[in-house]
Amino acid sequence: MHDDIATAKRALRAELRERRQLLSQTARDAAATGIREQLDTLVDSLGVRSMSCFLSIPTEPGTREFVDAAVRRGIRVLLPVTRTDGLLDWSVAHPDFDIAEGMFGLPEPVGELLGPIAVNDVDVLVIPAAAVDRNGMRLGWGRGFFDKTLGSMEGCPPVYAVIYDSELLDEVPSDLHDQPVTGVVTPTQTLILAPARP
């Protein structure tokens, strides 16, 4: 990666992280409600029976209400579990599943682990992001787990990144390994930004 791109990514991530930390609890609660409504509508419109999602941390737009509701509706939800080799294992969410702290202090489900290819048969992937630009380029948090996952998938289904409204930008710095997303889900809207990949 070029040094100037790496520097630009670090600076933008730091700014976005600070903005997220300054949000009030009221704003976070409202965002979680909005994300649940947007994701409910998305999975209904796509006829989703199986999907991936993630367990949000307190500063992220909340996904936990949605995951709980989706599981209770009978949707098979795969949640990521980090591995030391930079890939992701997956675990199927169940009602009242246990959560433990995984690598990097991220919340991860406790349960049977499925390998990295388990995600190949989902109808849609819902992933975290720091920001996304209007062409669908995603800026992650720098660890590369989701870029590796998306880059390794054949016939990748639609991929939606969950962000706050202010994190949809005109452009984000990117390099060759960075993977685009189909669209974004924010607390107020779901937008398609790029065609689904073959």
UniProtKB/TrEMBL annotation:
Taxonomically, the superkingdom here is: Bacteria
- Pfam family membership, one: 5-FTHF_cyc-lig
What EC designation does it have?
6.3.3.2
What sections of the protein cross the membrane?
none
Claim: Nucleotide-binding is one of the keywords in the record: yes
PANTHER family assigned:
5-FORMYLTETRAHYDROFOLATE CYCLO-LIGASE, ATPASE INHIBITOR/5-FORMYLTETRAHYDROFOLATE CYCLO-LIGASE
What does the record give under GO molecular function? Answer: 5-formyltetrahydrofolate cyclo-ligase activity
Required cofactor names: Mg(2+)
SUPFAM superfamilies referenced in this protein's UniProt entry, alphabetically: NagB/RpiA/CoA transferase-like (SSF100950)
Task: Kindly give the InterPro entries that the UniProt entry links to this protein.
Answer: FTHF_cligase, FTHF_cligase-like_sf, NagB/RpiA_transferase-like
Member of which family? Belongs to the 5-formyltetrahydrofolate cyclo-ligase family.
Q: Which UniProt keywords apply?
A: ATP-binding, Ligase, Magnesium, Metal-binding, Nucleotide-binding
What's the top EC group for this one? ligase
Q: What is this protein called?
A: 5-formyltetrahydrofolate cyclo-ligase
Which residues does UniProt assign to the signal peptide? Answer: none
Q: Which organism is it from?
A: Microbacterium terregens
Reactions catalysed, semicolon-separated, are:
(6S)-5-formyl-5,6,7,8-tetrahydrofolate + ATP = (6R)-5,10-methenyltetrahydrofolate + ADP + phosphate
